[in-house]
Each structure stands twice: as C-alpha cells, then as structure tokens.
Specification:
mainly alpha, 65% helix, 158 residues, 5 helices, two-stranded antiparallel sheet
C-alpha cells in the first residue's frame, strides 16, 4: 500500500461510522489480495506472505467485531473462518486459487455493506479527531487539505 493510500485510509477511518469501518476493512482486504497476486507474479514470496499477513489482520478485526447475539453474525463467522482457512492454505502453498476464493467471498460482502452504509446515519466512531476540509484552496495541479484542531487536547481525557 502506498503512502498516499495509507493517508487516505487513515483519514477515512477517523471520519467513519461503524458500517463504513467494515466497508473500509473489506476494501483493504481486496487491495491486499491484489498485492499478494502481484507478489506471486513477481515471484516475491516474502512480499506475498506479508500481504497475506495483512489480510489475516483485517480478518481478525472483522471477526473480533462480530456481535454473536445475532444470527447473521454466526453466518459471517462461518465465512470468516472459511477465509482464514483459505489464507492459511494460500500462505503455505503460494496458491493464487485460494486468493481468488477469498476475493469471491469478500467482494459481494463489500458491495452489500456499501449499500448498507448509505442507510447508516450514525456519527463517526472516533471522537476527538481533527477535522479535514478538502478543496478550500487550490494550488497549481493540486488540491490542498486544511486540518483544523479545535481542541488542544487530543489525547486521553482524565
């Protein structure tokens, strides 16, 4: 993931509600799948394992966020466990097919959550973050983002 993408995801995460966070994780998984495929094409096994490790980290976050009081969470848990098995197999055998299976499960989930997030009007999960305004000023061939920090205390509240 490039430095610019990391900054973009960081900004989106700080402004996201619960549903948007899930969508962001799905997007990151799809991005890491592409990185893993590229690493396989380039025969870079360490880069491949690193990309798979990042996918598994995202999957761990998704699994940990499930509320098992609801029936749908049990269904998602089964999908997530399947994905983890596929990732373990892909990592051990450097197998592209397993990544394709993971992508086939994640892409429809991301699309579904993208539609759901339009209905979620809750506020951002993270509080006490900087506000970013994009497009207030323009430079030649660039878009400037301004950050405002109304509070000087951005750490823990005591």
């Amino acid at each position: 993931m490039t430095k610019e993408l990391k900054q973009e995801y960081t900004l989106r995460i700080t402004q996201a509600n619960k549903t948007q966070l899930i969508t962001i994780l799905y997007e990151m998984i799809l991005l890491y799948i592409e990185e893993a495929k590229d690493a396989l094409d380039a025969d870079e096994k360490s880069e491949f394992k690193n990309a798979v490790r990042k996918i598994r980290g995202c999957m761990n976050e998704l699994t940990a966020s499930l509320n098992l009081e609801y029936e749908i969470a049990h269904n998602l848990l089964q999908l997530y466990l399947f994905i983890n098995r596929e990732l373990v197999h892909a990592s051990m055998h450097y197998d592209r097919e397993n990544l394709i299976h993971v992508e086939a499960v994640i892409r429809p989930l991301k699309d579904a959550y993208s539609k759901i997030e339009m209905q979620d009007v809750s506020g951002p999960v993270m509080a006490n973050t900087q506000t970013v305004y994009a497009g207030l000023t323009y430079g030649r061939n660039t878009l400037t983002e301004n950050i405002t920090d109304p509070s000087t205390n951005r750490g823990f509240f005591v």
